[in-house]
Specification:
Distance between the termini: 75 Å
Number of helices: 27
Strand content: 15-25%
Structural class: alpha/beta
Strand order of the largest sheet: 24-25-23-22-27-30-31
Number of strands: 31
Length: about 800
Amino acid sequence: MDQLKLKPEQLTNRCNPDQFKFKTTEELIPIRGIIGQERAKKALQFGLGVTKKGYNIYVSGQWGSGRNSFVNMLTEEQAVKRRPPEDWIYVNNFIDPYHPISINLENGQGKTVIEQVERAIRFLRRGIVEIFSSSDYENARQKLLEEYNQRANSIVGELNEIGKKYGFMFSLTEKGIMSIPLKDGKPMSEEAYKSISPAEYTVMLGNSQKLSLETIDLFNKLRLEEENLRTRFKNLDEQMGRHLVKFHLNSIREKHKNNEGLKRYLEMLEDDIVENLDHFKEKAEAEEPQSPLMLPMNPEAFFERYRINLFVDNSDVRYAPVIFESDPTYYNLAGSIEYLNEMGVVKTDFTMIKPGSLHRANGGYLILLAKDILSNPFAWKSLKRALLDEAVSIDSRAAFSGALVSQTIRPEPIPIDVKVIIIGDYYTYSLLTAYDEEFQKLFKVMADFDTDMSRNDENVEKFARFVSTRCQNEGLKHFTPDAVALLVDHATRLADDQTKLTAHLKTLGDVIIEADAWANYYKEPLVTKEQVQRALDERRMRNNKYEENTLNLFEEGTYLIDVEGFKVGEINGLAVVGTGQYNFGKPSKITVSTYQGRQGIINIEREARTSGKIHDKGVMILTGFLGHMFAQDKPLALTASIVFEQLYSGVDGDSAASTELYALLSDLSGKPINQAVAVTGSVNQRGYIQPIGGVNEKIEGYFGVCKVKGFTGKQGVMIPAQNVKNLMLSDEIVEAVRNGQFTIWAISHVDEGIEILTGIKAGKRTKRGHYERNSIYGLVDRRLTALAQTAKENAEKEDNEKKPAEKVEKQNKNADPAH
């Protein structure tokens, strides 16, 4: 089986520093963007270019792959091509104050409009006081009053003519018209009125009633004149006030004549000022509080209604906004309404409406992390509602806080045109696609970031430029070619493929920083291979405490394992143990016991509930293999138990399936297995070996155990042939293989593996249908045949023993009178 042994050159794929044309990375042009990821790049560019509804983007990728920075970069590139967004303001709705009005303005015009309106209000407050104190206004008012007095005196004269018949006269006073009784044609004095007799009073009362009936039309005419006077006064005030208001507001109208929303607001503003001219005529003094619990009224409070809320100010924005919301709560996303607490009661108005990320990103791009928005109550539904409605509604949720709300508002929704980019992982994308139908309507573009990239000359060159970029951006020492080459090797190791580089640039960036730190420690002008290797060694040392403890347990014999000799039904399997940031290989002894029975293969780990579903599947495949190979002419009359010895934390995965099969074949055939060889690999029902994960960690784990136990020159590992391309082993292991201390076999079928482990051929069927004599399969078949024959004999014996008992029972039933 020497042809299955791997050569040292196959165990790794070292990057040659000579392929680099630079002396230090300082000579390289910094790279902009990301290495590889062409699929994700094209998807992002497409999604950013489509402006139709529903073409928002979900970015799927592994943390640390550079997806966040790359999304920001591409979005910024697209944003600079678009015009800057509009400003938005909220103004008072004078007709319905509980529904403030939103108005969009050209970019940077929000502050301008506010200054213009505030200036107009200041001028009006002075101008209205002046105009209503002017002689022109007083003359016009006096003229109206004289006209009224002339008509009123004429009516009073008619009243007096009628009143004389009944002994009364009328006089026009400031308090209105008064009737005065007459005596001898002259007004009766108060003393005379008090001294009249009851009879005279009765006559006077009767005349007064008759007079009232006869003069009712004249009184109505007089009241109408009073109403007309008030109307004329009001019209005069409105005429003079509106003329002044128009003068100050028309300049604003002219500057924004194309903005219909602002024009409507200015009309409402004009009408409201004219309607409330009395508040402008003079400054009212603060009223005294009517009770200790009431606050004094602020005369300036009335003019708050004319303030403007600069809701979104984009005056400093020169192109489409790119907003990254790191805390997408409901309020941070959709905006909020603030409240003012007065004596335990909260109030609000249109000036206290605050924008959210959707408003600030309007006309541009909003970037969110999936885990953040999905973990915030109401935020996800709010985002979907805004995208479906293409508008953002700001809801007041103060009532849910337990506060006593006396006044709330419902602002007019603001239409939005925003491209939302959600960054998450593929699992979250799958869940949303499966369970949220609205997600599929709104996020039609998925940009999927790969976990690795091809290790070709182009990407290796870009990788070197990536190192140069990190050094320049973060002020680090530059790297030599051999240092970059070692980083490339490490990137390949992380990718678990000799033809790939990992896309987890965050981890590589950390190594770059740590290598620079060691260069500073040794006062080196450049980062060399030695500093990179020291950084990698230190990273491993900081995380491998559990691995060292495990090796100590193997060395002292607490963990039972044999790395030499031969044993029946025992084999060394390989597993990967994870401790968060660090994984390592740990060999485990697997034992098999076979005996007479019909229970088949018993997975002790499953019975103890320490086995995962995939491991259970792998064990079940063993039954299929045995049935295919040995049970075509006889039933399997076998019970076999399989267990991972000294494994208490559970096991999952099918990478030990072939290992368990070898131990099973060994126990059935009675042929011992070489304990110096550890095995990993999945297997199918036809005996073909399938690839597994963590091959480097598994080999290094067993190599470490052999190192502490002592090398014999016969130790090694069997791996699936498909995993050869995944090998990126340490220099120590490569040298051990080169020196003949350690061997790695790459196999494709169980036949090859069992021959390596036992030194005996697996065996093939002869023309007569039997396996070759004394081959492993021949011995197994003979054992299974014997077990089947024994099972058959035992079954016949049981049947024979049952027949007499059944006969006696039948006779007893017939003798019973009840039957």
